[in-house]
């Protein structure tokens, strides 16, 4: 009986070890095949699983000098304060940026004599800090980095086309010959604690995805569209760690390869 129990225990241990090894190997294979394009591949990952991370043969410029030293004299207090985009319908855009992305309307100005308005939105943590007077709002806005200026030209909201302005990403909107242009502007971007949870929320709110977290060649980041078709990149505030399945049902080892959106 004792010998029989030892044999059973030995077979059970061997079976568990084989199952564990198989599970571990599958997990390593998944992780290795979905290495983020923004993370240098570890030397422990086999060459066979990283062949898709082909390095460019183009000579790369040395940019290290731009990361060190003091700012040039006279620029110490400069702020990257805004990016401006034109929008078709200000209400639709404000709904998106304030209710979907969580920004706040920091300041706006109306210019009926020139038939346009501007709306400055930004990710303000506490709306109670926004001053009630116009001069105070102006001062806060001009000293807040990363604002987005939404410019509405009167009448654009009445146009029948879904999109009125060219987004810069291989877009034919507004071109005289109807052909796509190789645009320069690409996207704006926000960071979130968890890209996959954020994208689940965006999907529930009816957002249009240009790229889900596991779509394309870069895993763990996403692109959604605002009401005018401008791309908004969704990036993590920490490491870019792919999850097995994203909100659109795309597996981490699925999706198409990298695509140049300018073409």
Explain this structure to me?
This protein is of the alpha/beta class. Residues 15-37 and 39-51 have low confidence and may be disordered. The strands form two sheets. It has a four-stranded mixed beta sheet with strand order 1-4-3-2, with helices on both faces. A four-stranded mixed beta sheet has the order 5-8-7-6, with helices on one face. A hairpin with a 5-residue loop joins β7 and β8. The chain has four helices and eight strands. The chain starts with a helix and ends in a 27-residue tail after the last strand. The protein is globular and about 55 Å long.
Strand content: 15-25%
Task: Provide the gyration radius in Å.
Answer: 25 Å
The best one-word shape is: globular
Helical content stands at: 10-25%
| Main beta sheet strand tally, sense and closure | 4 strands, mixed
| Average of the residue pLDDT scores | 83
How large is the count of helical segments?
4
């Amino acid at each position: 009986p004792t010998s029989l129990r030892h044999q059973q225990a030995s077979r059970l241990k061997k079976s568990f070890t084989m199952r564990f090894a198989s599970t571990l190997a599958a997990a390593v294979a998944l992780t290795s095949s979905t290495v983020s394009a923004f993370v240098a591949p570890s030397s422990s990952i086999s060459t066979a699983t990283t062949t898709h991370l082909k390095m460019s043969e183009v000579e790369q410029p040395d940019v290290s000098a731009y990361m060190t030293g003091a700012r040039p004299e006279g620029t110490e207090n400069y702020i990257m304060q805004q990016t401006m985009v034109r929008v078709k319908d200000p209400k639709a855009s404000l709904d998106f940026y304030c209710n979907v992305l969580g920004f706040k309307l920091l300041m706006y100005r109306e210019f009926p004599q020139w038939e346009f308005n501007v709306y400055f939105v930004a990710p303000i943590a506490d709306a109670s800090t926004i001053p009630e007077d116009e001069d105070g709002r102006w001062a806060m806005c001009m000293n807040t980095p990363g604002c987005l200026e939404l410019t509405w030209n009167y009448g654009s909201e009445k146009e029948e086309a879904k999109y009125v302005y060219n987004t810069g990403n291989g877009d034919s909107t507004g071109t005289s010959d109807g052909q796509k242009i190789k645009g320069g502007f690409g996207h704006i971007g926000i960071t979130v604690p968890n890209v996959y949870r954020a994208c689940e929320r965006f999907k529930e709110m009816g957002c249009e995805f240009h790229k889900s977290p596991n779509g394309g060649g870069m895993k763990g980041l996403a692109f959604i569209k605002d009401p005018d078709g401008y791309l908004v990149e969704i990036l993590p505030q920490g490491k870019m760690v792919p999850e097995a399945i994203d909100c659109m049902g795309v597996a981490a080892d699925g999706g198409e390869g990298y695509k140049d959106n300018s073409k």
